[in-house]
Structures are given as structure tokens and as C-alpha cells.
């Protein structure tokens, strides 16, 4: 029995095709809720994004949904046999540990070398598999973590701040990759971010969290909600940046670094 009565207006049923559902989920710390009566559901082919300031309870909620920590109230239901791929916000690796990308990807899996090629190509990782994990750039590491999650062939992909450690333009490209993965695999994606305008073009539904749900809905509506603006300020979401199309005179490699694009020469060029 639920310790918190669910709000029927936001109650989902696994019968509607949901992969996972949280109803009235509450987590307490020091006698006070850090996650308070949260309801959400993720369906196949859907990107649901949790946004909120630091300390809002986003990662705590993810940990509760994944059963990594105990809920103090509420209920989490999963599709039977649900396969989940998880990319954590941070990865702590002992700098003295001799582990390269290949060994890291093999940990906990039964995949052989031939199985790695397609998934590495899918995430755009082009560095050597013998590169020490500790020597990867921020963009390379995020792509390796994403590849490791995809090796499991997940129905649900959970990404906690997947662009951490990546420059602004690299973040936009990674969100585009996430959307492409959703379209190609039709998996559900539960995404955590502190920055709505970076994910607006790549997400279907947004829940703004600050211990409790402040507001939720389509990203453009959430960005104009008074509760969201009270948390982040009225100037936080710039529509021009939120739906920015990445077209300019350079591209970015897998690390997020800019690479100039050479213009085509015309027949009248002196150096032709």
C-alpha cells in the first residue's frame, strides 16, 4: 500500500505501455524529504527529462527509481524483464588502475570484440580502444559510457547529466546523438539535466523538480511556467538558443573540439 495517496491526474498504468512508473516516490534525509511525492512514467520511444537546480533531488530520484537506494514512500513499477542501461553523472576510477577502453567496455558483459564495433560507431567514438580510460577527454568518456550502456541493448536508457565535462557546442551534438539513438532503437530515455534550454529540442516531456514537482509538460511550456522562471530566472531560456540549429563554418570531432570545414573552391580561384 502506498504511504502517499497518488494524484489521479498524474497516475500512469503499465497497461498503457509504460516501461517504468514511479508513484508518490519519497526519499527522506535527516527527517526531511529530498524527493517528495514524485509521479512519472517513461514509455518506449519517449525522452523524459528531469530538470532542476543543484540539490533539487534529481539524482536521488534516479537512484530510487533504479532501486539503488530505498524509497521512504511510494511505489516504483517496472515492465517485467526490463533491461536498463545507465550512464552515471560521475565515474571515479583509480588513476593507478591499468584499464583501457576495451577492458572497461567488457566489464560485466559477455560481448566479444566483434560486437563493439557497431556500438562504438553509433556513439561516434573513434579513439583507440587501447587508450587508458583515465586519459579520455570529457567528450570521449561520455561516449564510452553511453556505448557501455547500449551494449546491454536496453529498453530504457537512464542518463544522469550526460553532457557533464563537455563544452557547450559538444553538448548540443551529444543531445542530438541521444535523440538519434532514441529514434533508431525506440528505447525510452530518462534524462537528467540542470539546463532546460540545452535539451528542449531533444526531449518530449519535462518535469521541473525542486524536491517536489514544480511544473511539467512540453519543454516550451515549462520554460514559460512561473514556477520554472522563479527557480531559474526569466532570462534562463533563450528560445533562439533552445532551438538552435547547428550550422556554421566548422564541425566538432568526438571530443567536442572545433574542426574547420574547408570551403569548396570555385573554378576562378587563383590557386586552382
Give a written overview of the molecule.
This protein has helices at 58-65, 101-106, 113-123, 138-150, 168-185, 196-199, 219-222, 226-232, 239-242; strands at 18-29, 32-43, 47-51, 73-78, 84-87, 156-160, 188-193, 205-210, 212-217, 250-252, 258-260. It is α/β, with parallel strands linked by helices. The protein has a domain at 1-44 and 52-83 and 194-246: 3-Layer(aba) Sandwich (Rossmann fold). The strands form 3 sheets. Strands 5-6-7-3-8-9 form a 6-stranded mixed sheet, sandwiched between helices. The chain has a 3-stranded antiparallel sheet with strand order 2-1-4. It has a two-stranded antiparallel sheet with strand order 10-11. Helix 3 packs across helix 4. The longest helix is centred in the middle third of the chain and has 18 residues, at 168-185. It is globular and about 50 Å long.
Amino acid at each position: 500500500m502506498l504511504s502517499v495517496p497518488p494524484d489521479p491526474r498524474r497516475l500512469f498504468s503499465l497497461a498503457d505501455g509504460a516501461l517504468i512508473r514511479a508513484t508518490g516516490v519519497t526519499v527522506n534525509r535527516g527527517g526531511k524529504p529530498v524527493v517528495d511525492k514524485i509521479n512519472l512514467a517513461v514509455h518506449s520511444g519517449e525522452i523524459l527529462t528531469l530538470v532542476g537546480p543543484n540539490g533539487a533531488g534529481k539524482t536521488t530520484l534516479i537512484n530510487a527509481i533504479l532501486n539503488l537506494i530505498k524509497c521512504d514512500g511510494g511505489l516504483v513499477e517496472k515492465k517485467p524483464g526490463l533491461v536498463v542501461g545507465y550512464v552515471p553523472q560521475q565515474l571515479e576510477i583509480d588513476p593507478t588502475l591499468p584499464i583501457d577502453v576495451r577492458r572497461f567496455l567488457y566489464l560485466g558483459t559477455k560481448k566479444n570484440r566483434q560486437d563493439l564495433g557497431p556500438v562504438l560507431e553509433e556513439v561516434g567514438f573513434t579513439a583507440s580502444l587501447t587508450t587508458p580510460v583515465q586519459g579520455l577527454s570529457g567528450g570521449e568518456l561520455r561516449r564510452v559510457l553511453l556505448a557501455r550502456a547500449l551494449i546491454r541493448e536496453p529498453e530504457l536508457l537512464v542518463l544522469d547529466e550526460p553532457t557533464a565535462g563537455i563544452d557547450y557546442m559538444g553538448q548540443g551534438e551529444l543531445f542530438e546523438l541521444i535523440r538519434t539513438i532514441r529514434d533508431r532503437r525506440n528505447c525510452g530515455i530518462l534524462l537528467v539535466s540542470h539546463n532546460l534550454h540545452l535539451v528542449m529540442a531533444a526531449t518530449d516531456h519535462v518535469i521541473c523538480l525542486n524536491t517536489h514537482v514544480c511544473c511539467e509538460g512540453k519543454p516550451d511550456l515549462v520554460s514559460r511556467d512561473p514556477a520554472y522562471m522563479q527557480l531559474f530566472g526569466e532570462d534562463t531560456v533563450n528560445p533562439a538558443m533552445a532551438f538552435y540549429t547547428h550550422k556554421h563554418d566548422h564541425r566538432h570531432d568526438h571530443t567536442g573540439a572545433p574542426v574547420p570545414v574547408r570551403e569548396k573552391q570555385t573554378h576562378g580561384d587563383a590557386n586552382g
